[in-house]
Amino acid sequence: AVKQKTEQKLSYKQIGILQGVDQAAVFRAIHHLIPTDTTQYFKANRADIFARMEERVMSRVNVDAIKIGDPRAFKDAMTGVGILYDKERLERGQSTQNISYADSNARVQELRKATESKLKILEELKAKLEGRSTPQVTEGDKTGTLDV
Known about the structure:
Radius of gyration: 30 Å
Structural class: mainly alpha
Helix content: 55-70%
Largest sheet: none
Strand content: under 5%
Order of helices and strands: HHHHHH
Number of strands: 0
Distance between the termini: 64 Å
């Protein structure tokens, strides 16, 4: 029904006839799902809206008197700012998470070792199935192919 309304530009009455229900039932079911001008504006300006929301939350925090009356409210505000900042960066196509090269390189090495270990097991199984006791791998062969 939403596609009929938004893409085919049918009226609620026409959708009701096609769906076999009253137009009021169609309206109640889908009117809140139909994009409005406000929806389109929000989608087009989402990053800036998130930045403005961050600014409004931060303006409520009294940094000079760091004694916050309600610590939970402060924590909630800061958590909200962090989430909004991540969403703003995401909308702008910027990173939302920084991973160090050393961490990612270490993970790649870990995966490589695990893969090589599994490859060796597969080679041993293949050799047993072919009636050999151990596979004969050429020295320095990085691909793990057998030298038969």
